[in-house]
């Protein structure tokens, strides 16, 4: 497999959109302006956040690509891209979100370690490819299997990505075998994003998409799939992306005391107006944002306050996937349960104030009010109430401008 890829250097990075906010150049990590997120239910490829741990791989010979599937599977196989595309094509609408989304706000409470993401380290995409469960069927593992006949309990995904955290080795991650073999979980080996071939930034030619789970488990540039007895022992499963209480510091951390993060919690953010915006006194303003919850839990409601949390108004939820996305088959049985909802609320604001937003999901999970209560040294899973402050331009002053 390795000879199929060119040198992993930053000299061969793909072009990116000029509007992205770059949080680190090498490796490249960037997010779109928040206002771009609420312009479309489906996030464009250009505006989809970019999360990397090393240089973007360069595939030099597509025709020789082979995906190896083995480990503790009863049988092993090696599949070309043509063979993968001959399997039934499945399309799923799913939001991918970095576990570090909204980390910058958490660091304002106390300093945390990690890329300084604002509120746009996520995007909602239309992903198409082969179901992982269909591929596992080919190596002798039936649907809804918790433990394989050879003792496998987890499915490990291995990339060609080279990471300094893995001492120059490949990026790896895993999910439980039961989740991998369940067609209901909609885990796919994706080769298309938004109706087009995956580009290099998003995993060309093949990636895993694990809906409802933190983005770290949706491994890009997939090289092999292994059935293993225990969860993946890679750095990003065992020494990162874990949730610790506020009392844990770098001096007393015990990585083995916590499980790797999987489902992301309920999340909500305000994308318009932006923090610090100036509004005309008494004008109608449309507050817009996104909300999502992990594990297939839908959003029940969004509560918005325009008086700093004294009173709350329920926002209007978007209608989900709109018509006009021709790359989604009309007869495809896709579900929006893995996707965000966009919401809005039109209100009149007459004085400087804090606008707050919080969400409730279908399991009645609610967001915590304070970031301090969920602070952790890695700055992951900040899902506290989101707040933006708006200023007011008096009508008389505005008319003189």
Automatic annotation (TrEMBL):
<dbReference type="Pfam" id="PF03404">
    <property type="entry name" value="Mo-co_dimer"/>
</dbReference>
<dbReference type="GO" id="GO:0043546">
    <property type="term" value="F:molybdopterin cofactor binding"/>
</dbReference>
<dbReference type="GO" id="GO:0030151">
    <property type="term" value="F:molybdenum ion binding"/>
</dbReference>
<dbReference type="InterPro" id="IPR000572">
    <property type="entry name" value="OxRdtase_Mopterin-bd_dom"/>
</dbReference>
<dbReference type="InterPro" id="IPR005066">
    <property type="entry name" value="MoCF_OxRdtse_dimer"/>
</dbReference>
<dbReference type="InterPro" id="IPR014756">
    <property type="entry name" value="Ig_E-set"/>
</dbReference>
<dbReference type="GO" id="GO:0005739">
    <property type="term" value="C:mitochondrion"/>
</dbReference>
<dbReference type="InterPro" id="IPR008335">
    <property type="entry name" value="Mopterin_OxRdtase_euk"/>
</dbReference>
<dbReference type="InterPro" id="IPR036374">
    <property type="entry name" value="OxRdtase_Mopterin-bd_sf"/>
</dbReference>
<protein>
    <recommendedName>
        <fullName>Sulfite oxidase</fullName>
        <ecNumber>1.8.3.1</ecNumber>
    </recommendedName>
</protein>
<keyword id="KW-0500">Molybdenum</keyword>
<comment type="pathway">
    <text>Energy metabolism; sulfur metabolism.</text>
</comment>
<feature type="domain" description="Moybdenum cofactor oxidoreductase dimerisation">
    <location>
        <begin position="260"/>
        <end position="391"/>
    </location>
</feature>
<dbReference type="GO" id="GO:0020037">
    <property type="term" value="F:heme binding"/>
</dbReference>
<comment type="pathway">
    <text>Sulfur metabolism.</text>
</comment>
<feature type="domain" description="Oxidoreductase molybdopterin-binding">
    <location>
        <begin position="53"/>
        <end position="235"/>
    </location>
</feature>
<keyword id="KW-0479">Metal-binding</keyword>
<dbReference type="GO" id="GO:0006790">
    <property type="term" value="P:sulfur compound metabolic process"/>
</dbReference>
<keyword id="KW-0560">Oxidoreductase</keyword>
<dbReference type="Pfam" id="PF00174">
    <property type="entry name" value="Oxidored_molyb"/>
</dbReference>
<dbReference type="GO" id="GO:0008482">
    <property type="term" value="F:sulfite oxidase activity"/>
</dbReference>
């Amino acid at each position: 497999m390795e000879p199929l890829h060119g040198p992993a250097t930053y000299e061969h990075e793909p072009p990116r959109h000029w509007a992205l906010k770059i949080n680190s150049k090498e490796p490249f990590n960037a997010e779109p302006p928040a206002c771009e997120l609420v312009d479309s239910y489906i996030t464009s490829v250009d505006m989809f956040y970019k999360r990397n741990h090393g240089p973007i791989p360069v595939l030099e010979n597509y025709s020789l690509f082979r995906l190896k599937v083995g480990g503790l599977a009863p049988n092993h196989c090696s599949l070309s891209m043509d063979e993968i595309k001959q399997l039934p094509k499945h399309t799923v609408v799913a939001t991918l979100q970095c576990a570090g989304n909204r980390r910058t706000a958490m660091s304002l409470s106390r300093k945390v370690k990690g890329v300084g993401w604002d509120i746009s380290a996520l995007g909602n995409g239309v992903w198409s490819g082969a179901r992982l469960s269909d591929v596992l069927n080919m190596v002798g593992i039936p649907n809804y299997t918790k433990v394989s006949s050879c003792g496998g309990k987890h499915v490990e995904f291995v990339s060609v990505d080279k990471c300094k955290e893995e001492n120059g080795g490949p990026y790896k991650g895993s999910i439980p075998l039961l989740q991998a073999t369940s067609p209901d979980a909609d885990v796919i080996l994706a080769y298309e994003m938004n109706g087009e071939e995956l580009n290099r930034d998003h995993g060309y030619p093949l990636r895993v998409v694990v809906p409802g789970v933190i983005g770290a488990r949706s491994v890009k540039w997939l090289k092999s799939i292994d059935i293993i007895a225990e969860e993946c022992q890679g750095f990003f499963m065992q020494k990162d992306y874990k949730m610790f209480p506020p009392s844990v510091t770098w001096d007393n951390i015990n990585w083995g005391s916590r499980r790797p993060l999987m489902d992301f919690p309920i999340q909500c953010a305000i994308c318009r107006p932006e923090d610090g915006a100036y509004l005309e006194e008494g004008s109608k303003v449309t507050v817009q944002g996104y909300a999502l919850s992990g594990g297939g839990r839908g959003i029940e409601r969004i509560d918005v306050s325009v008086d700093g949390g004294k009173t709350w108004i329920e926002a209007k939820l978007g209608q989900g996937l709109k018509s006009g996305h021709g790359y989604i088959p009309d007869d495809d049985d896709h579900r929006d349960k893995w996707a965000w909802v966009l919401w809005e609320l039109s209100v009149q604001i007459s004085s400087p104030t804090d606008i707050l937003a919080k969400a409730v999901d279908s399991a009645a999970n609610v967001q915590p009010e304070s970031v301090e209560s969920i602070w952790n040294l890695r700055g992951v899973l900040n899902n506290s109430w989101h707040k933006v402050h708006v200023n007011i331009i008096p009508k008389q002053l505005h008319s003189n401008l």
